[in-house]
Amino acid sequence: MIPDSVQKALNDQINNELYSAYMYLSIAIYFDVYALTGFSKWMQQQAQEELLHARRLLEFMADQDASIELREIKAPQASFNSAIEALEVALQAEQDNTEQINDLYELAVKHQDHATEVMMQWFIQEQVEEERSARTVLDRAKLAGDDKAALLVLDGEMAKRDQVA
């Protein structure tokens, strides 16, 4: 049985994953407006990944007969001053997500909830990749700076990302 405080934290994390998907869709729309379809595709795939993370947590909780509470998802930022700002928002969201996952892991350890502890280890490893990926895209966009041709080359690279399974 998952302790009540851990169940609450898992529900919070589900909400966070769903918000992240919503945020990535908002950023994808921003990129679509500026015909940066590669960036948009990358963001849409990030959104899909976040939905898979939420589903993984939901299935884990269902398997543990835990109380699942789907909550309202706040509206994400919808406008940005630049591609770099949009990418900074995405990276910050991943860093915030990492912090929440680490806190959830620590809570599971505190309550000796070993099943949740093991589940959160997967998420901890996943966040290393998520942050690295977001940081790399941001760093490359910063290298492109105000050079529209360089940004278009990067956009083409972003379009090559494989579909999330």
What does it look like?
- The chain has a single domain, classed as Up-down Bundle (Ferritin), CATH 1.20.1260.
- It is 77% helix and 0% strand.
- The protein has helices at 4-33, 37-63, 83-110, 114-144, 148-158.
- The two termini are 31 Å apart.
CATH superfamily assignment? Ferritin, core subunit, four-helix bundle
Report the oligomer: single chain
- CATH C-level name: Mainly Alpha
Report the principal-axis shape.
elongated
CATH architecture level-2 label: Up-down Bundle
How confident is the prediction overall: mean pLDDT?
95
Distance between the termini: 31 Å
Summarize the structure.
The chain is an all-alpha fold. It is built from 5 helices and no strands. 77% of the residues lie in helices and 0% in strands.
Keywords:
5 helices, 165 residues, mainly alpha, Ferritin, elongated
List the helices and strands and how they pair.
Elements: H1 4-33, H2 37-63, H3 83-110, H4 114-144, H5 148-158
Helix pairs in contact: 1-2, 1-3, 2-5, 3-4, 4-5
